[in-house]
Amino acid sequence: MVWLFALIWIVGGIPMAIISEVMRAENPRTVKVARIAFALLLAADLLVAARIFSTATANQSPDIRASQGFWWLAVIAGGIPLALVSGRAVRRGYVGHSLVLSGATLLTAALYLAFPFGYVPAGDKLTGLGRFAHEHHALGIVILLLPTLILLADELRRKREVTRPDSTEPVLD
User: Fold this and answer.
1) 132 CB-near residues (< 8 Å, 6+ apart)
2) N or C of the chain: less Cβ packing under 10 Å?
């Protein structure tokens, strides 16, 4: 299951590095596109983690099945650091909106914590968060999309940004 750590960092880390660099652009529209891409990347990261968790938890094969301890390790060493590093990497694009970015980043980290809490070994009776996730798939997906929705709602609230001729920093119009 070591491949999971690599997958978490590849799926989230490589696009994050690209988005972070795009956020350094002088064109405000380019930065806006990068902010939207970042919001969508948070959703993709959480949904990929959820899919892997679902597959590895429900599978009877000992090669793919993971224990609850493994999920804690994956979340603490993979998901949460990725969320925090991602939020820090894009802070340049959220000048004046750092509270929204911090909230979405912390919510992403908190949602990663839900995976080990929802763990129920294959074949055991579903209880707690595992039962909720199994019975309410659509609601679970909406919950995983909350950080993305927060960032996209903030993007809609932003006024048009322009760049001053003497500066590369975007200002609100």
Assistant:
1) 118, 140
2) C
Tell me if 163 sits within 8 A of 61, measured CB to CB. Answer: no
- Residues contacting residue 96 through CB under 8 Å, at least 6 positions apart: 172
Q: What does the block give as tokens for 8?
A: 């978490």
Token pair for 43? 């959703």
Please check whether residue 28 is in contact with residue 37, taking contact to mean a CB–CB distance below 8 angstroms: no
Q: Are residues 42 and 148 in contact, defined by beta-carbon separation less than 8 angstroms?
A: yes
